[in-house]
Amino acid sequence: MKLRINQCLRSKRGDMLVLATALMIVLLLIFVAVLSMIQVQGIIVSIRGSVEAALDSYTVDMGREIAGSIKSGHDYTVVLDQEQFHEYLQREFPAYQDNTLTVYDEDTGRHKFTLTCKSFDFTDEAGELKTKTVLHLDIPLYYMGVQVAGIDRDMALQSRYNLK
């Protein structure tokens, strides 16, 4: 068998059907892999943008509340309101429940991704409110309808509000 393949590959007649077929299969696999990675990057960018919008909205609202309190002469102590941040996330992702968002494809019903809020923190120093959240993103990869791998990734996002 090995000798026959070598003869086909070295043929002077131009009998390159085996090599051309193998080359086409390899190129097709590379093309499918690139398309899958583009799809995954699209999901990541979309999620990141929505979470950044929620975090920025939360930071601005909390910053305005702190600045208003200070201007009225009250000594304001910042209290971490993680539930309020989760409400902002729920505005961006209506299916966000119990600190987790799991999305399924409407057409196939397959698991598309899971987003989990791992931590949420803030600092109030030198007239600036800084908020930070770390999210865990799990995206399964499918081949011919079967999950073959997955991408697990943590995303750290920050937002700032100048209280002056």
Q: Can you describe what's shown?
A:
It contains three helices and four strands; from the N terminus they run H-H-H-E-E-E-E. By secondary structure, it is an alpha+beta fold. The protein starts with a helix and ends with a strand. The mean pLDDT is 83.
Sheet of most strands? 4 strands, antiparallel
> What's the average pLDDT?
83
Strand order of the largest sheet: 1-2-3-4
- Helical coverage, percent range: 40-55%
Shape: elongated
Q: Approximately what portion of the residues adopt beta-strand conformation?
A: 25-35%
Uncertain ranges:
none
The total count of helices amounts to 3
* H/E element order: HHHEEEE
| N-to-C span | 79 Å
Rg, Å, rounded = 26 Å
Number of strands: 4
SS class: alpha+beta
Short description:
By secondary structure, the protein is of the alpha+beta class. It is 45% helix and 32% strand. It has a four-stranded antiparallel sheet with strand order 1-2-3-4, covered by helices on one side.
Topology of this structure?
Layout (H helix, E strand, L loop, with lengths): L1 H8 L7 H55 L10 H11 L7 E5 L6 E15 L2 E16 L2 E17 L2
Antiparallel strand pairs: 1-2, 2-3, 3-4
